[in-house]
Amino acid sequence: PWRYHTGLADGGAVSFESVNFPGRFLRHNNFVLRLEPNDGSATFRQDATFRQVAGLANAAWSSFQSYNIPDRYIRHNNYQLRIDPVTTATDRADATFRRIS
After folding, report:
1. Given pLDDT bands bounded at 50, 70 and 90, which one contains residue 91?
2. What is the distance between the alpha carbons of residues 45 and 67, in angstroms, rounded to a whole number?
3. How many CB atoms are closer than 10 A to CB 76?
4. Which positions ≥6 away from 68 have C-beta within 8 Å?
């Protein structure tokens, strides 16, 4: 499970901190999201920050735009979370999430 955290690089954005491993955040590295401890660097803060926007496939849900690579969104693909460009209906569906708690 994840805890919505104020964006590490932008207070108007979000970061995702692990509930089970406090101090570790989802961060993109080579376009793949990984759970890593916050090293305090500006690069880490930017890689772990996402702008929450209306869902690309369902506006009642959410999509998450990369803070430092804004043409990419968190997307699931082949059981992996990545940041990818979104161009097709499948991409939009894969980049749309529903918050459940």
Report:
1. very high
2. 9
3. 15
4. 9, 46, 47, 49
Q: Which two tokens stand for residue 90?
A: 């499948």
In angstroms, what CA-CA distances link 34 with 45, 52, 56? 13, 19, 23
- Give the tokens for residue 11: 């207070």
Could you tell me how far CA 90 lies from the centroid of its own chain?
A: 18
**Can you tell me the distance from the alpha carbon of 92 to that of 14, in angstroms, rounded to the nearest whole number?**
20
At residue 76's C-alpha, the angle toward residues 95 and 45, to 5°, is 80
Q: Is 16 exposed, middle or buried (CB count within 10 Å of its CB: 0-12, 13-18, 19+)?
A: buried
pTM above 0.70, yes or no: yes
Q: Among 74, 70, 72, 68, which residue's Cα sits nearest to residue 94? A: 74
